[in-house]
Structure formats: C-alpha cells, structure tokens
Amino acid sequence: xxxxxxxxxxxxxxxxxxxxxxxxxxxxxxxxxxxxxxxxxxxxxxxxxxxxxxxxxxxxxxxxxxxxxxxxxxxxxxxxxxxxxxxxxxxxxxxxxxxxxxxxxxxxxxxxxxxxxxxxxxxxxxxxxxxxxxxxxxxxxxxxxxxxxxxxxxxxxxxxxxxxxxxxxxxxxxxxxxxxxxxxxxxxxxxxxxxxxxxxxxxxxxxxxxxxxxxxxxxxxxxxxxxxxxxxxxxxxxxxxxxxxxxxxxxxxxxxxxxxxxxxxxxxxxxxxxxxxxxxxxxxxxxxxxxxxxxxxxxxxxxxxxxxxxxxxxxxxxxxxxxxxxxxxxxxxxxxxxxxxxxxxxxxxxxxxxxxxxxxxxxxxxxxxxxxxxxxxxxxxxxxxxxxxxxxxxxxxxxxxxxxxxxxxxxxxxxxxxxxxxxxxxxxxxxxxxxxxxxxxxxxxxxxxxxxxxxxxxxxxxxxxxxxxx
Length: 470
Known about the structure:
Elements: H1 16-28, H2 51-59, H3 63-76, H4 84-93, H5 97-110, H6 115-127, H7 131-144, H8 149-161, H9 165-178, H10 183-195, H11 199-212, H12 217-229, H13 233-246, H14 251-263, H15 267-280, H16 286-297, H17 301-314, H18 322-331, H19 335-348, H20 353-365, H21 369-379, H22 388-397, H23 402-411, H24 415-431, H25 435-445, H26 454-466
Helix pairs in contact: 1-4, 2-3, 3-4, 4-5, 4-6, 5-6, 6-7, 7-8, 8-9, 8-10, 9-10, 10-11, 10-12, 11-12, 12-13, 13-14, 14-15, 14-16, 15-16, 16-17, 17-18, 18-19, 19-20, 20-21, 20-24, 22-23, 22-24, 23-24, 24-25, 25-26
C-alpha cells in the first residue's frame, strides 16, 4: 500500500474519493466559464438565478438535486439560453456520463476553441479510465492555451500516475507559475514529493493546497501520510480525522488512521477504525490484515484467526497471512489447520525452513507421525546438507539421533540458530513427556533477540502454561 501515494484500491482501480472529488471540482468550475443571463419575469423583473441553490446541493453531496434544479429552471424559462457547459458538468457529477459527453461534443464541435469544454471532457475520460484519450484532449487544449494551469495540472497527473515523477513535478510547477493557487497542481506536487520521500517539502506544499482548497479531503489525507512518514503521529491523526470528516465514506483514511493509532498504542481506536473500513467495504482484505494483527496483540485469538481466514478468502495470493495464522492455530492446539497453514507458508517462503519443521511438528502433535515423516522426507532435499534445519529434520525422522542433535545445538555459536534448534528438540521431548528437560531448553529459546520469531513466541506460551520459572 505504501509503494505509491497515488490512491488506488486493492484491485488497482482509482479510488472512489478521487472520483467523487473530481466530479465535485467539475461543478464548482462552472463559475469560471460564465453563466447564462437570467431571463425576465412577466413584470420585467429579473428572475433570481438558481446557481446558489445548485452550489448548495453540490456541497451537500447531492448532484442529482443540483441537476434537477437546473432542469426545472430551463423548463420554467424555455427561452433562456442553455449553458451547455454547466449542464454537462451537472450531468457528469450526477453520473450521466454519456449525456454529459453528448453536450460537451456539441460545444466542442460548435467551437473548437472552447478550452473549458475540453478540460471537462478530459475529466470525463479520466473517470471512464481512458488515459490515452485524456492525454490527447489535454494536448489539444494546451495548443489553445499553453499556460492554462488546469491543463498543465491534468497532463502532470498523467505523468504522476505513470510513476514519471520528474516530468510530473516540472508540469505541476509550470501550472503554479501560471496560478500559484491552482489547487490540483499544489496537491499533485505534494503527492510527487511524497513519492520522492521529500516529506518535509510535501507537508509545506500540501499546506498551500489546503489553503487553496480546504474542502478537499485528499489534501488532508496526503498531508497526514507525509506527517506519518516524519513520525508526527499526532499530526497525522489530526489530518486523517479531518479527511474523514470531509469524506466519511472513504475506507483508506480509516485504515491509515488505524495504523497511526497502533503506533500510538491507542488500540481500541485502531480497532474501531479497521472495523469501520470493513463496514464500508467488506470485500477489501487489507483492514482484516491489520485487525487480525491487532486482535492477536490483544490475545483475542479466535477473532484473529477468523480475520486471517477472511483475508485468504478475499485474497488467496496474500501469502503473508499464512504464517501468523499457522502460529495462532498452533497456540490454540488446532493441529491440522496449523500443519496445513505452515505448509502453505513454507511453500511460499521456502527460505524459512522453520515453517516446514513446524508443519511436521503439528502433524506429530496430532499423532500423525507417518504423515509428518512423509512430509519431512519430501522437504529434506531442500535443506542445506549439514545445516541446522537438516539436522532437526533427520532427528524428527530418527529420534535416536537426539544426542548428536543436542550436541550440535550446544556447539552452535549463532544464538538464533541455537535457539531454534533447542526449540524443536524441546518440542519433541514434550511429545515424549520429558517435561523438565524440555522446559529448561525452552527457557534458553526465550533469550533469542527476535520478538516475532514463532519459536520464541511458542516457547514463551509453553513456559507460561507449565508455570515454569528458572
């Protein structure tokens, strides 16, 4: 998620917030192109125009009502000239893309120099996912006005989305030379700086974007991410909270704020945010990942297991869920699910032989000794000959090799490898009810300086269950 600060959802499509903000900006732009003259009433008095009511409907998030107000106005005054640009933008905001396209094409056909119509049409191509056509239209507009900030910002955004940050930055800066308060250019440049890891500069640029466009939730989202990168957790939470106030339906802000709450150890608030993201889009796997880790941290293992399983239902390719799920199953003595999850984890992370050994150990805990040996026999050739995983695997296959294996563990200079070997030796001893010796070995395992190592975590749990103290 953090590879790019250009917001996309888990399926790679443009975020709903980006679309909704783009449509809202279109409506507010209609003032720049001028409005049709208001007709006279029968008494010769000027009829109040509907533009204020339209703006209020747009700001209330009701473009359908704004469109209806304008259409009612035209029906009441059929002789009034139709502002096709306004109508096209209202149609677009209300989701009538084909109708909006028709109105814009009439405008452009009538006058190829209507730059506002070209800009609006480029937004329409953006919403329909046609970047090549969008670029073509913007270049046509640029020929009409090479200094137009909206056109330059639109072209810059295309470079930004393609990961061409230097080209994007140059065009955004050109736009700002024409208009230092061009909101889209300010935000776009801020996003470029985020991706270039120039976080302090990004904050400064996004400060200006917020000043120019305080109602755009994305400005706060992006500044919140920049502040988070600077370890300003409180500032990040403040910005993300404001973004949520402006657009409460955008799930990414809840995920990002929840992650900041985790860092601040405000765990209840983190859980609330991840759960809210799930309520907004229950088919998005990422908030389940974070909530599962949080539940695990809170020792709510059944809930964590349920969330990790949901992750794999939604995204079977998310390989990083298998290992924590396997550990939870092991701690809960769900031996078969543990064995299967560890096998999946090892299949996708063959560089971690502990997963294969833990899978075999899980089968042994279930009493499936032959299945464990068959599985280890299949994996043994993948282990470096003479390495600690090979020694443990051969010990599991032939327990008579225990003295040799224990001696090798005691000789091992690498503290991490020694601890891992002792964990598997101790676990096999527990299967044989040799509790005292096993617990002494497990105590040594807890000295490993690695908080997230499965062997250390399981060792600590076993010592706690047996009430063992040195």
